[in-house]
Structures are given as structure tokens and as C-alpha cells.
Write a structure and sequence with these properties.
- With about 270 residues, the chain is of the alpha+beta class.
- Among the domains are: about 70 residues, TATA-Binding Protein; about 120 residues, Hypothetical protein, domain 2 (Endonuclease III, domain 1), CATH 1.10.340.30.
- It has a five-stranded antiparallel beta sheet.
- Helix 4 packs across helix 13, helix 5 runs antiparallel to helix 8 and helix 5 packs antiparallel against helix 11.
- The longest helix is centred in the middle third of the chain and has 15 residues.
- The chain is globular.
- The chain binds a DNA duplex (13 and 12 nucleotides) through helix 6, helix 8, helix 11 and helix 12.
Length: about 270
DNA sequence: TCCCAGGCTTGGT
DNA sequence: ACCAAGCATGGG
């Protein structure tokens, strides 16, 4: 069976919030309290108690991949202090306290782009079930501990499926958008290059050349996969928050390098009041 | 050029 | 009927 790595639980780290705050759609918490999902072509299983976190990987894999995947390479004392400097105290302080433990993950770029295309005009349970259907139908199948899992399909696999193949999974008007994304990414658009060499603004312009990708989907991709913590996705929840606490407008360019993390705190806070 | 309104797939309530 | 982590489109 698995080799389990045990690590002292870091400050400001809570798997329940990380996987439940709406940034990630392919992890589920099992009856054994282990969060399980597929990323980077393999199954990750993660759990926690008050003292430790537990992962089914080696120390070497953790250092090379999962540490960054789980957002453990940033000092959130520093992040939170920077956020507070850029906001009026009040709701932001409450949001930081409510959302303590959230980490912005570094998910796979292509999967993240498609996931947020699918998220348009959808609710989270349906987003999850659509992504799962796309993987089951067009992703590569593999086995782990005797169970079957599916990778997220490549751009080429989505092109082979075609718009009709994706519509058959009830993706609706988003099917054509996924095809447009697949065409770009299999024909010159390099998401890793956007991550490594582009500014946030350049990345936003580039991603918005995909049909069906606007500022919201682009900034989610930049924030959750492409290392741009300054990206500030504005969705209906954040619009409500801006109306309610910030007098209807917010100058996103004044929010600092961690604006996107502030956005996650506000998003989590506002939804928790529901 | 910018702003605004209504449409779009589907499923849950 | 209305709503859900939006976007493309056309008209003014």
C-alpha cells in the first residue's frame, strides 16, 4: 500500500477550506476524512489532524510538486499583513479570520482553464459533475490501488471529442468554448509560458483571445494555476461584496500583489454568511 | 469606443 | 417561474 508522509501541520493551513473554497473541483472528502483527487497524472490523498498533515507521497515528491500544489511555498503571515495594508480594516479583517487556512493552490494550467470555462453560469455541484464526466469520457484511464481513475483530457483529446461529443455530456453552450481553448492550446498558446514569462495583464489579454474566455475565467486561471496572486476575479459573489462593503466600487489595481488571496477570503466569507 | 440588455444549455428549487 | 464562480452579440 501507500507510503504515507507525515509533516507538522503548518500555520494557516486547512485542507477542508483549501478544497472547499471553490478553487478546485476534482477533490472529494471520503468517509475516512481523506481528501482524494487526481492531479499531475496521479492520485493524491491528503488528510490532517491538529498536529500533522498526511500525504501519500515521498518527501522528494512533496518537495518537488505537492508543496507548491498545496500553496505551502508562501508565508501567509506575510500575505495577510500585506493584504491588510491595502484594505480598510473591518470586513477584510473579518474575512481573513473567517477564511484562515485557505491556501491558493497551484493547479494544472490546462485543467484549470477548462474548469473555469465550465463554471460559467453554473453552480459548484454541477461544475464538479460536468468535469468528472469530461474526464471519464475523454481522459486517460489509470489504476491506483486497484481502483480506476481518469486524468483530465488533453487538448487533443477534446478536439477529437468535438463540440458534439462535449455537448453530449450536457456542457451546453460551453462546448464550443472548450473547443476554442483546445484549438489555441494545441496550436501555439503556451500556458506555462504565460505563467513563467508574462505579467498578469499580458496573461489576461492572451487568455481572452480564446472564444468564451472573458475577464472572470481568465483571472481565475491566472490566480489558481498561473502564479498570478495579483489577479482579482470578480464574480456575482464578489460583486455583492463590493456593493455591500465597499460602496459599489473597488480599485483592483490598488490591492497589492496578493489581491487574489484577499478575493478568496472575501468570497469564502460572503458565502459562509449565506 | 463604450455601455447595456437579453440570450444561451442544463438542472435544481 | 427563477437562479447558478459569465460571455458573445447586437443596438444605441
Amino acid at each position: 500500500m501507500d507510503n504515507i508522509l507525515c509533516i507538522k501541520r503548518p500555520k494557516h493551513f486547512d485542507l477542508d477550506k483549501i478544497f472547499d473554497c471553490g478553487q478546485c473541483f476534482r477533490f472529494e472528502k471520503g468517509d475516512d476524512n481523506v481528501w482524494e483527487g487526481v492531479a499531475y497524472g496521479r492520485v493524491l490523498r491528503a488528510s490532517q489532524d491538529d498536529e500533522n498533515i498526511y500525504l501519500n507521497c515521498t518527501k522528494d515528491e512533496f518537495d518537488k510538486l505537492w508543496q507548491k500544489y498545496l500553496g505551502l511555498d508562501l508565508d501567509y503571515d506575510e500575505v495577510n499583513a500585506d493584504i491588510i495594508k491595502h484594505f480598510e480594516p473591518g470586513v477584510m479583517q473579518s474575512a481573513i479570520e473567517a477564511g484562515d487556512g485557505i491556501r491558493i493552490m497551484r493547479q494544472e494550467p490546462w485543467e484549470t482553464l477548462c474548469s473555469f470555462i465550465i463554471s460559467q453560469n453554473n453552480n459548484i455541484p454541477r461544475i464538479k459533475s460536468l468535469i468528472s464526466a469530461v474526464c471519464r469520457n475523454y481522459g486517460e484511464k489509470f489504476e491506483y490501488n486497484g481502483k480506476e481513475y481518469y486524468a483530465f483530457p488533453t487538448p487533443e483529446a477534446l478536439l477529437a471529442a468535438g463540440e458534439e461529443g462535449l455537448k453530449a455530456l450536457k456542457t451546453g453552450f460551453r462546448a464550443g468554448y472548450l473547443i476554442s481553448a483546445a484549438e489555441h492550446c494545441s496550436n501555439g498558446m503556451d500556458l506555462c509560458k504565460i505563467r513563467d514569462e508574462y505579467t498578469y495583464e499580458q496573461g489576461l489579454d492572451e487568455l481572452c483571445t480564446i472564444k468564451g474566455v472573458g475577464p472572470k475565467v481568465a483571472s481565475c486561471t491566472l490566480l489558481f494555476a498561473l502564479d498570478k496572486t495579483g489577479a482579482f476575479p470578480v464574480d456575482v459573489w464578489i460583486k455583492r461584496t463590493i456593493d455591500k462593503y465597499f460602496g459599489g466600487s473597488l480599485d483592483v489595481s490598488s490591492l497589492g500583489d496578493y489581491a487574489g488571496i484577499a478575493q478568496q477570503y472575501l468570497f469564502y466569507y460572503e458565502r459562509s454568511l449565506k
